[in-house]
Amino acid sequence: MVLLTFNIVNIDAEPKNGIQISDDERLKISEDNTKAILRILDIHDVKASFFIEVSLVQKLQNLIKAISSKGHEIAFYNKNSSLQEIEEAKKIAQDFLEKQIRGIRQKDFKLPQENLKLLEFNYVSNIDNSDILFPFKRLKRDTEITEEEGLSIVPESISPYSQLPYNDFVFQILPMKYYQNMVFETLKNDEFVLIYLNSWQFTDFSTYKFDVPFYRRYSSGKKMEDKLDALLTFINEKELATSRMKDYIF
Fold first, then answer.
1. Which residues, in sequence order, are bridge partners of residue 73?
2. Distance CA 174, CA 227 (A)
3. β-strands 49-53, 193-198: how paired?
4. Does the predicted TM-score (pTM) go above 0.90?
């Protein structure tokens, strides 16, 4: 099973010297990037899970409704929000979607699992930092879903052959043919592959002058769209099953 997920987050990078990029512009970039992702998913009829950064929930209500109306899952991405902020955002989203928010993802700032359970989340999908060196360290860890504090804990996927994690940076940097082979071989060994990408990776950095490292500009923007299109074409040609996170877990 391929679990395709997207983190909807504003880009943190500062603009280059002398350039001003407002918060509203950053939000518009995230919206446009997400719409590009939705178009590609729609072409290939693939459903995914979208992890919306908590502070963006109220600002992106129309976009979130559009994502949900296309059959994709809405979950939360906790960047640095408090329990109260998460609880308030969860109530708002569930009210306008008329659906329960079941999943939450965390990276740097991780709240206790027992507290997340009290907010009635059903699963946690934590991720690690990824930079130019991290993905190429050989990793070994459990890749099976476990249950703790009444929550399903979904780990990052790792290729049992290359030992590369299926994180945002690995997708961006690897040649697509290699990545496709990695997915295909992993599914021969594991029950699922969890892939995650960030909406800001689809930013055209030739248009928006953010000060990002060269390895984060590489294959970004339209090239990321092309890589996603190529991955979904491969998934459909190989008849690999896909699922939203909540459907697979429950």
1. 49
2. 10
3. unpaired
4. yes
